[in-house]
Amino acid sequence: MICLGIEGTAHTISVGIVDKVDEKCKILSHISRTYKPEGGGIHPREAANHHAKHIPSIIEESIEKANIDVKEIDMIGFSIGPGLGPCLRTAATSARTLALLLKKPIVGVNHCIAHLEIGRALTKCNDPVLLYVSGGNTQVIAFMRGRYRVFGETLDIGIGNCLDKFGREIGLSFPAGPKIEKLAKKGNKYISLPYSVKGMDVSFSGILTACIHLLKKERIEDICYSLQETCFSMLAEVTERAMAHTEKEEVLLSGGVACNERLKEIIKKMAQERNAKFFSPPNELLVDNGVMIAWTALLMYASGIEHKIEETNIKQNYRTDEVEIKWRN
Amino acid sequence: MEKLIKRGAEAEIYLSEWRGRKVIVKKRIKKRYRIKELDEEIREKRTKKEALLMASARQAGISVPIIYDVNLDEKKIVMEYVNGERLKDVLDVKSEEEQKEICYKIGEDIANLHLQGIIHGDITTSNMILRDNRIYFIDFGLGMKSEEIEDKGVDLHLLMEAFKAAHRNEKLFSWVIEAYGNFSDESKEVEKKIKEIERRGRYMRRVS
């Protein structure tokens, strides 16, 4: 069964075409375009305009690249939430149009769960604790009693947002994460920052403020180094707590910030220390992508979920644990 | 002879002997994923804080294990071994009258902790030991000092969730709150806060 998935929750608009063969995920094509603000962070309307401009051509391109006829598409999936309203609406509108045009079923997918499902499909993990880290989201998720439950999350801003905001203070363009990673490699002095773990939750806004205050006193490289070490250690700690609590022995790292090599190293070490297994999908599928949406839509459809057009209203604050996971036991 | 009895995410708990006494040793273990400076700092801070909170709880008249020694180099606390029953394991088999009495005592104790600005941070029946009709509170590792209604509310809310997850009698928490109200003059605000916390999405899904 072939599904075309459209992802558009934030700054990336992406189309993935996936074929489900013998319960396995076969990626036929994957094309993304990313909105880059001229200055500052993501402007939701500007991002949505960017998506609207690119979506028709990337749909065409992806069908061409998948080497299929448009009639071979069996269903449409799209990111229904959570995310930025204007971006979500743009993706949803194109998904509805395609579904009506092709007379094919449509399924709205929870973006966070899609990150988890594509990880399960493409790595060898089966029942992991997911550390999902991106610009807007920072969650520790695991499957329990029929749902993906959030065991820990940020109480204020996402880790990526924390890095981007700090980057903006020091004149780095969006996204600042990879640039901070480079600077951090040249740092070697650890400066103590507010380490903020509350049970299984984390908070980053205090660290951000502390780092901004350090700007006049310390080397930028050392601040970046300390910022990364502090935030990533916090993430490792809450993930470990969730693993101990749920007695799960696999950890899956996903989301845009998971491209950071130091974060990967830290989470991997944490897993090794407790004899657990570490998994992470390839970088192009760590960031927002249409493939994960298409794959999750296929899983949902196979478990009997199909949305009527009037049920495809976007859900900006869609929670991970609202979704009934019928495709897992 | 030290015997490992529990390995948590953060600490290892040993049964041991110290100057002829049977003791519990709580050791905060090294995390190699953290850089050394950060790891040392965190483990030392938490060991200190936990010992301090236990000492202040004791001063507030709450039953907690006696601390015999704190070793900041090894990040360990040596404390009294409380030979009792974990409340989580025995609460359900008690009679309703006994359950009520226990919950009243819990409510009174938490009110007294909060009056002294002590937030336990992880009040569950797994962290209470019943011995000689007294309830010993253990594991202050997630605790803090605070006078905020928010923190007190979160503290009690956690107990409510723990009751729901682990125990059958649905009246347990209301008894705790009843007693809490008799000993705290902030109980109305705290109760309101608990309701508010319940309504917050992020706490709706708390599992245990």
Keywords:
heterodimer, A: 329 residues, alpha/beta, Nucleotidyltransferase, domain 5, five-stranded mixed β-sheet, globular, B: 208 residues, alpha+beta, Phosphorylase Kinase, domain 1, Transferase(Phosphotransferase), domain 1, 2 domains, five-stranded antiparallel β-sheet, three-stranded antiparallel β-sheet, 7 helices
Strands of the widest sheet of chain A, in order across it, are: 3-2-1-4-5
Shape label of chain B:
globular
* Average pLDDT reading of chain B: 92
CATH class of the largest domain in chain A: Alpha Beta
Characterization of the model:
The complex is a heterodimer of chains A (329) and B (208). Chain A has 329 residues and is α/β, with parallel strands linked by helices. Chain A has 9 helices and 12 strands. In chain A, strand 7 (138-144) and strand 8 (147-153) form a beta hairpin. Chain A is globular and about 60 Å long. In chain B, strands 1-2-3-5-4 form a 5-stranded antiparallel sheet, with helices on one face. In chain B, strands 6-8-9 form a 3-stranded antiparallel sheet. Chain B has a two-stranded antiparallel sheet with strand order 7-10. In chain B, helix 3 (96-115) packs across helix 5 (172-183) and helix 4 crosses helix 6. Chain B has helices spanning 36-59, 87-90, 96-115, 149-166, 172-183, 187-199, 201-204; strands spanning 3-7, 11-18, 21-28, 67-71, 76-80, 85-86, 118-119, 128-131, 134-137, 144-145. Chain B is built from 7 helices and 10 strands. With 208 residues, chain B is α+β, with helices and mostly antiparallel strands. In chain B, strand 1 and strand 2 form a beta hairpin. Chain B has 2 domains: 3-80, Phosphorylase Kinase, domain 1 (2-Layer Sandwich), CATH 3.30.200; 85-204, Transferase(Phosphotransferase), domain 1, CATH 1.10.510.10. Chain A binds chain B through residues 144-145, 149-151, 153, 155, 190, 192, 195, 198-199, 229-230, 233, 236-237, 240-241, 243-245, 266-267, 269-270, 273, 317, 319, 321, and chain B through 8-10, 31-35, 37-39, 41-42, 121-122, 142, 201-202, 204-205, 207-208.
